[in-house]
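Sanity check

After download, print the first record. It should look like this:
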Amino acid sequence: MDHRFSVVPTAPPDAILGLTDAFNADTNPNKMNLSVGVYKDATGQTPVLQSVKAAEQKLLSNEKTKGYLSIGGLQDYCDHVRTLAFGDQVPAERVAVLQTPGGTGALRVAADFLKTQLPGAKVWIPTPTWDNHRAIFDAALLPNDGYRYLAADRTSLDLDAMVADLREKASPGDTVLLHGCCHNPTGIDPTAEQWKVIADVIAERRLLPLIDFAYQGFGDGLEADAVGLRTVMDRVDEAMVCTSFSKNFGLYSERVGAVSLVAAQASEAAAANSQLKRMVRTNYSNPPRHGGAIVATILSDPELTAIWKSELDTMRNRITQLRQQFVETMKTTGAGHDFSFLLPQKGMFSYSGLTPMQVDELKQKYGIYIVGSGRINVAGMSESNMQSLCDAVASVLEG
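Expected structure tokens:
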């Protein structure tokens, strides 16, 4: 008897999550996982924030139902999403916000919307970008292509090349994917002045900005990290934004995100909202309650908001200090490689400049797991393992 599933091939492992599986199976007692994007404290744990624990206690005392949410999710949560992203820049009636299962869910809803409502339009993606971006757009059958982002030295933004590609390759009506802050995987963000240039090109070419906003508060602070998004919104009256609260609230497993659509008119936002809800209804139907309720509870309570902002500052500052410590410690190894180019980078990730061969050697010899592109999760480092990490990096550089 033939078995139908016998013809199904094994899919290749995910480029990032597959490394975690390999890491978990590694018996090296000194192993380090610097691949997957999660924050860790000095003990190597991904902590639950005190503001989150307090909000959960409040929810436990007051929650009266586990009934379904609406398709769009919790309204107070969506209101807070809009305020964090746009401040008072865009009137509320022009913004449709839907709660989603994480930033990935937001991107997929956005991709389905673009595919069905703007047929023929292409999405332009920075090179490099988060590995899952292209996979999400491909899964939604949404045409996509790349624009240049990283300079040949792999340590800076090539603004001229980016602008040239958007001017010469992208057509009016196309979508351009932008990282709102803390570019993944490089950590290299445009300056405030460069954002103005990018925003001008988007307006000039009549492109639709799709802004992946997964790390607000992890770069320079909540308001400072919104400068790029708001600079773009100064120049255009339509955009989509995909928000994630995995990192800045530490709610990785709760899958808390949102998709926001800004329209030129309130009536257009309402129509787009109805179509976004159709995308959701045929995908996951409605979002989970708990994570969104945590965020809404914190942001509705001034005391909890203050605690959360302090915790966010602590995480951001620690990442900055770890990046600085790595650069300084590498100077002591005698490898002769100056990593000072990492210092201006923002957020959890940094492009190390390590080659795929060197990355493989780190894994095989030292149990240090880094994405093949050389992307390092700085937040996975610790003060206690910094010297051994730098010694291992120096070893593969010398080899």
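If your output differs, re-run the checksum step. Summary of this record's structure: Residues 13-47+317-398 form a domain with the Aspartate Aminotransferase, domain 1 fold (CATH 3.90.1150.10).
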